[in-house]
Amino acid sequence: MEDEARPHLEREGALSADIQIERSMDIHYYGQVREQNAAVPTGPVTAASLATTVERFHDKAPAG
Fold this sequence. Notes:
Elements: H1 2-11, E1 24-27, E2 36-39, H2 47-60
Antiparallel strand pairs: 1-2
């Protein structure tokens, strides 16, 4: 999606230097309705980057 977004934004007139892509995931615990948004690290999606994302989710998720 990132590879498709950059050229599209540039065709629309955005300067390459101004384009910032931020990755995130909406995550929730089983049985919960509301999601928390957690930032996903840049680079390839790996087990380590997913673990970091889950950690970030746990840091934001309400207790209980």
